[in-house]
Amino acid sequence: MDTQPTASLSEVLATPAPIVPPANSKWYVVHTYSGHENKVATNLRQRIETMKLEAKIFDIIVPTRNTVVVRHGKKEDIKEKIFPGYIIVRMVLDDESWLAVRTTQGVTAFVGAGNKPTAISEKEVETIKKFMALEAPKYKAAFSVGEAVKIIDGPFADFLGSIDTIDEAKGKVKVLVSIFGRETPVELDFLQVAKL
Fold first, then answer.
1. DSSP state letters, 47-112
2. How many CB atoms are closer than 10 A to CB 44?
3. Of 38, 67, 126, 186, which is least packed with CB atoms within 10 Å of its CB?
4. Which residues pair with 179 in a beta bridge?
5. For residue 11, what pLDDT is reported?
6. ∠ CA 143-145-146 to the nearest 5 degrees?
7. What's the pLDDT score for residue 13?
């Protein structure tokens, strides 16, 4: 005999259904102060709730990607902003929703011609979302080709050289090191070299 509890009709009706964005909602790019994207998204979510705009503003995306950076000789996973100073908002554009977004603290403007926000396509947003979801963290090089560096780890520690190539995907650099009067390329991890 099945004794699982079943929800009563009043409980089912009391549960709010998720709001499905209507066909006339579009994605808009909003310019923010650089470095304030997450704060603007949080502020805007609070405004949507307090101003009861859930039926007009549906989704806010701060486009970020997982990246590995090397700081002070250690690898750190960070969420790097793909478009610093911009967030993407799905909304039904009217005077009320425009004003709510435009007057949110940290927002400088909508992207568009003059005072008219320009919508971006669903395809563009899907491309951004796919890029955000890419699994492999990407190393962010703090070096440039031709730059003089010091090797700080491994068999060539304390040697000086210059960067020949950078492989950001693998987090490796090829450094030209002078050994016995000849320049020899040595492949090293980002962690094994330091700027001079």
1. HHHHTT-TTTEEEEE--EEEEEEEETTEEEEEEEESSTTEEEEEE--SHHHHHHHHTSTTEEEESE
2. 23
3. 126
4. 182
5. 56
6. 110
7. 53
Tokens of 12: 């089912």
Q: How far apart are CA 107 and CA 22, in angstroms?
A: 25
Count CB atoms within 10 A of the CB of residue 139: 21
What six digits make up the tokens of 37? 């994207």
Task: Tokens for 129, please give them.
Answer: 């979302």
What is the rounded radius of gyration, in angstroms, for the C-alpha atoms of the chain? 25
Locate tokens 């949080």: which residue? 42
The tokens 């960067």 sit on which residue? 163
Q: Which residues of the chain have pLDDT under 50?
A: 1-2, 12
- The upper half-sphere exposure of residue 87, i.e. CA atoms within 13 Å in the direction of its Cβ, equals 28
As given in the structure block, the two tokens for residue 148 are: 């003089």
Instruction: Identify the residue whose tokens are 């579009």.
Output: 26
pLDDT (0 to 100) of residue 193: 87
Predicted local confidence at residue 29, as pLDDT:
95
Instruction: Please state, in angstroms and as integers, the Cα–Cα distance from residue 104 to each residue in 40, 59, 95, 114, 133, following that order.
Output: 7, 15, 14, 19, 28
Q: pTM score, two decimals?
A: 0.65
